Amino acid sequence: MSTQSTNVVLLIGTIVIISLMKPDCTAVTEEYNGFKLCVTSRRGIKDLSHRNLTDVPSNLSNNTQYLDISYNLIQSLNGAQFSRLFQLCFLKVTHCGLQEISPTAFSHTPALKFLNISHNNLHVIPDISVKQLEILDLGNNLFTSYRIPESFQNFSHLDLLSIGSTAAPSVSYSDFDPLMNVPVHHLVLGAGIPWKNYESGSLAKMKSLQKVSIRASFCGNFRMFENVLVDLNVTKAKSLRFIAFFPDNCQVNGDPFENLRTMPFIQNLTIENTWINSSFMEMFLKNVWLSSVYDLSFVNMTYNEDTPDGFQFHTLNHTINVSSVTFNGINHYQYKYPTFNMSFEAFSRLTYLKFSGTGMNILPCRVMSALPSLETLDLSDNLLSESGFWWILCSHTSVFPKLRQLSLSKNRFRSLSIISQKMNEMKTLESLDLSFNSISLDGDCSWPAGMKELNLGNNNLGNSVFQYLSSNFERIDLSKTGITAITQEALSCFPKLTHLKLSSNSIRVIPADLSLPTLLSLYIDQNAITSIPREALGGVPKIQTLSAGSNPFVCSCDSHWFVADFNKSLLLDWPLNYTCSTPPSFAGLQLSEFKTSELSCETGLQVAVALPVIIVISAAIGLVFYKYDGVWYTKMLWVWIRMKRRGKKCSNLMKNASFSHHAFISYSHQDSDWVDSQLLPSMEGAGFSLCTHERDFVPGEWIIDNIINCVESSYKTLFVLSRHFVQSEWCNYELFFAQHRAISVQRDSLVFILLEPIPADCIPKKFLRLRSILRQQTYLEWPNNERKQQVFWRSLKSMLHMADKSVALKDVALAISDKVALLTDDL
Ligand SMILES: *[C@@H]1O[C@H](CO)[C@@H](O)[C@H](O)[C@H]1NC(C)=O
Ligand SMILES: *[C@@H]1O[C@H](CO)[C@@H](O)[C@H](O)[C@H]1NC(C)=O
Ligand SMILES: *[C@@H]1O[C@H](CO)[C@@H](O)[C@H](O)[C@H]1NC(C)=O
Ligand SMILES: *[C@@H]1O[C@H](CO)[C@@H](O)[C@H](O)[C@H]1NC(C)=O
Ligand SMILES: *[C@@H]1O[C@H](CO)[C@@H](O)[C@H](O)[C@H]1NC(C)=O
Ligand SMILES: *[C@@H]1O[C@H](CO)[C@@H](O)[C@H](O)[C@H]1NC(C)=O
Ligand SMILES: *[C@@H]1O[C@H](CO)[C@@H](O)[C@H](O)[C@H]1NC(C)=O
Ligand SMILES: *[C@@H]1O[C@H](CO)[C@@H](O)[C@H](O)[C@H]1NC(C)=O
Ligand SMILES: *[C@@H]1O[C@H](CO)[C@@H](O)[C@H](O)[C@H]1NC(C)=O
Ligand SMILES: *[C@@H]1O[C@H](CO)[C@@H](O)[C@H](O)[C@H]1NC(C)=O
Ligand SMILES: *[C@@H]1O[C@H](CO)[C@@H](O)[C@H](O)[C@H]1NC(C)=O
Ligand SMILES: *[C@@H]1O[C@H](CO)[C@@H](O)[C@H](O)[C@H]1NC(C)=O
Q1: Coiled-coil annotation: which residues (predicted)?
Q2: What is the pLDDT of residues 424-476, one digit of tens each?
Q3: Which atom of ligand 7 is nearest to the CA of 277?
Q4: Degrees, nearest 5: CA angle 630-632-635
Q5: What are phi and psi of 580, to 5 degrees?
Q6: To which H or E segment does residue 545 belong?
């Protein structure tokens, strides 16, 4: 194997110490994880930080899921404060000067999963017990020992425990005993102060540790640190992170990381927020190269060249296991470019290199060809431009022979046409990130055919950007590029498109004719979209991920289908980021809580819903109608109404008339039982005077004369119709009607009672008149049911009530026939 070393000089552009302010990425993630774990509704979020509160507000609504009361003046927590918050899942009380927490503080909040009480003045680790707790941050407090309370045994779901105190410089053997069977995967220990004592074996008790972050320095006593490593080797932790390991004035004696060589489980090693001298770096890397570590990171380090020739690392006669190296944030202590002198040949396994936040403005020549296996190169957040990346003095045989992903984000690149041409040198390149530069569209682009992904986010490009892209692109990120409109025509140039990001633009409308049959993921959040047309999403049949939140949605029927029908599992940001913006009455309402009735929005549905409802109701009414003889009652009602109307009309007329009987009753003698037992007692009992032929006819007179006399002296003529009557008696009356045509026309004077149903065909053909009367005239049907009989009698009585017996029938009959138009008669 070649042991030739290649001198590579990294040219770092900044002269002065650059102070890079980087957020603590892991912490942000934990907090975000907790947020995602807990919050299902925007209403459940209460951020009351920075309010000068002296106590937990007592008027918090009982649906609070997320409560942030950091940066207040709350000194103690107790159960009463949280008694109503049974849904509380995320609680953050940092920077409050908290001094004590009662053991029952969280006994009413069984759902609590995330608790951050770091940066307070707790003098003892609180003796709390919350079964569901997954993330607990007790960092940066003032307790004097790391002795964990017994109650922590009960944290059966605890995954991340962060614990640290600026007043606790030592760890004792039994401190972590209660955590022996708690499934903590990630432990963050310490508060950045130097440790005075560490009793061997303490950390080894936590069997489930996978990830350990130690925030402490061991200056002057690195043997202690070696013991820590031995214990972490026992826990088989895979990932180690040392934060603030060397303060600026730390004296390193010996080789603190020598144990790394015999720790077979370590995979990831991170050194963070620390001062590193080039002399230490040489020693440290020798250990790493001989270890099992494959992911090595330096985050926010201050680099000091204390060796006269810079960093020297010549001899390497074995390949190293490290395949991923990250430098994220380097502050240069010296006012000069650092010098690296090391062999790259040994890095045959290096696939990932990140060199970010270093101030680099010129890419060292040999990097392009000296890292044969490099697949991902991240040079984001530097000061590179076209001329610095393709430095004019360099000449190379091969340019990143295996590079697939290149990030040049957050640099100073300008020309898209030049970049596109240069990328053709990188034969295997698939993905390029040019976000956060100053790219302009300055001419035609010729992208490498194999390139599939381009990120141009956060460059000011405009609507024409699509013309400058390759039709081979599968993933395009155009977030925040000043796009105001998209058309299907522009998008149809990308037949292989699977991922499209258009977040943070000013797009108003999603084209309804959108048709991207291969698209899997679409981001259109933070635009000016008011609704998402159903047809547009019909044009992306394979969509798996959609992000469309933070748009000014109109809460109307346009949004209804989206709320009601769209498969929400495809939405990354549902429901929190979807809120109504108009109409004003709904502004701020979470879209998921916008309930408009489906009925008011969909016509087809209206019919579909209304029809069965109407049918059911009709059927129900019909059934009730049938069951309770609605037909009979309706007929009665009809009779009643007509009578009342007629009654009014005729009342004047009748005022002066007089009769000797209210009614003449005509019936077949076969029905005389009914007449004698029912009709007469009922009516006469009610004060009506009735004339019947059996009782009142004058003997000796011809029956017809008798009838006529009786009829003439009665206000009404009442026929009791039955089959017998129709067949035997009717002929008499036919004659009568023939003679007294005028009277017969005044139909109101005739009342028909149907004792039994008489089908029309039972009536002999010759009795046309009767048929016609039964068809036109209302008649009363005799019911069998007793309740109905009541109604029957009442109807009958009111029919006869209109009678007044003071005027002779004749006059009345004449008067009536004068007033009432003659109806055409079938006779
Ligand atoms: C707790 O809050 C502090 C202060 O905001 C933050 O730095 C830390 O990351 C938080 N802890 C977790 C686990 O999120
Ligand atoms: C809190 O108090 C400080 C000074 O006592 C004041 O400057 C600040 O405005 C107050 N903050 C709020 C939110 O009331
Ligand atoms: C709770 O009370 C405080 C005053 O004590 C008030 O400012 C706040 O609006 C109240 N919050 C609710 C949700 O009622
Ligand atoms: C939550 O509070 C509301 C009123 O703010 C009340 O109607 C409801 O019953 C409470 N829920 C429970 C479970 O206490
Ligand atoms: C753990 O919880 C059980 C009941 O769930 C309780 O009896 C026991 O005292 C708790 N242990 C500690 C150390 O608090
Ligand atoms: C780590 O553990 C392995 C066995 O699991 C052992 O061989 C090795 O010596 C240990 N290393 C240290 C530094 O304790
Ligand atoms: C780094 O070098 C400086 C001298 O340049 C020395 O004072 C300091 O102790 C060294 N620090 C470490 C961590 O080696
Ligand atoms: C970077 O590390 C230094 C110590 O070397 C520390 O003072 C500073 O706060 C760190 N910066 C960030 C952003 O963590
Ligand atoms: C390097 O990795 C290989 C497997 O990838 C492994 O067998 C070997 O033990 C590792 N080297 C060290 C020093 O752990
Ligand atoms: C270790 O590093 C790899 C990348 O090299 C990463 O994917 C993995 O998440 C890291 N593991 C931990 C526990 O940080
Ligand atoms: C590798 O180099 C070391 C010195 O750094 C030497 O001790 C060792 O014998 C060499 N091994 C081989 C295989 O050449
Ligand atoms: C929700 O919107 C905010 C602000 O627009 C954004 O920062 C956040 O990432 C979005 N959340 C999701 C899950 O997309």
Answers
A1: none
A2: 999 899 999 999 999 999 999 999 999 999 999 999 999 999 999 999 999 99
A3: 1
A4: 105
A5: -75, 145
A6: strand 545-547
What span, in angstroms and rounded, lies between the C-alpha atoms of 656 and 654? 5
3-state SS record for 16-84: CCCCCCCCCHHHHHHHHHHHHHHCCCHHHEEECCCCCCCCCCCCCCCCCCEEECCCCCCCEECHHHHCC
Q: Residue with the nearest Cα to atom 13 of ligand 5? A: 151
pLDDT beyond 50 at 6: no
321 in contact with ligand 9, CB cutoff 6 A: yes
Is any atom of ligand 9 closer than 6 Å to the C-beta of 292?
A: yes
Higher pLDDT, 94 or 667: 94
Alpha carbon nearest to ligand 10 atom 4, residue: 295
Q: Which atom of ligand 4 is nearest to the CA of 61?
A: 5
Indicate which residue's Cα is closest to atom 13 of ligand 7.
Answer: 250
- Which of 171-180, 647-656, 705-714, 794-803 is predicted least confidently? 647-656
Taking only the tens place, the pLDDT of each residue in 487-513 is 999 999 999 999 999 999 999 999 988
Residue 712 CB coordination number (10 Å): 19
CA–CA dist 204, 227 (Å, integer): 10
118 lines ligand 1 (CB under 6 A): yes
Determine which residue's CA is closest to atom 2 belonging to ligand 3. Answer: 59
**Which of the ligands is closest to the CA of residue 72?**
2
Q: Which residues line ligand 7 (CB under 6 A)?
A: 246, 250-252, 275, 277, 280, 304, 306
Query: How far apart are alpha carbons 292 and 480 in whole angstroms?
Result: 42
- CB-ligand 11 contact for 317 (6 Å cutoff): yes
- Between 634 and 138, where is the model more confident? 138
In sequence order, what are the beta bridge partners of 433? 407, 455
pLDDT mean over 92-101: 95
Distance 75 CA to ligand 8 centre (A): 29
User: What are the sequence ranges of the domains in the chain?
Assistant: 238-343, 488-593, 651-826
Distance 201 CA to ligand 6 centre (A): 14
Task: Report how far ligand 7's centroid is from the alpha carbon of 546 (Å).
Answer: 52
Which amino acid, one-letter code, is at 613?
V
Of 801, 754, 722, the C-alpha closest to 636 is 754
User: What pLDDT is recorded for position 10?
Assistant: 39
What's the mean pLDDT when you consider all of the chain?
82
CATH domain 651-826 topology: Rossmann fold (3.40.50)
Of residues 742 and 691, more confidence is placed in 691
Separation of CA 222 and ligand 4 centre (Å): 57
298 by Cβ neighbours in 10 Å (0-12 / 13-18 / 19+) ranks as buried
Q: Counting ligands in written order, which one lies closest to the CA of residue 235?
A: 6
Which ligand does the CA of 269 lie closest to?
10
**Which residues sit with their C-beta closer than 6 Å to ligand 12?**
526, 547, 549-550, 572-573, 577
Cα(578) to centroid(ligand 5), Å = 42
Beta bridge partners of 303: 276, 332
- pLDDT tens, position by position, 324-354: 999 999 888 877 777 777 767 777 788 999 9
Span 488-593: which CATH code? 3.80.10.10
SS3 for 601-629, per residue? Answer: HCHHHHHHHHHHHHHHHHHHHHHHHHHCC
Q: Which of 54-58, 223-227, 619-623 has the lowest mean pLDDT?
A: 619-623
Between the CA of 129 and the centroid of ligand 3 the distance, in Å, is 29
Which residue would you say has higher pLDDT here, 592 or 65?
65
606 lines ligand 9 (CB under 6 A): no
Residue 635: the pLDDT is 66
Give pLDDT, residue 21: 34
Nearest CA to ligand 10 atom 5: 295
**Residue 804 binned pLDDT confidence (cut-offs 50, 70, 90):** very low
Burial classification of residue 757, based on how many CB atoms lie within 10 Å of its CB (0-12 exposed, 13-18 middle, 19 or more buried): exposed
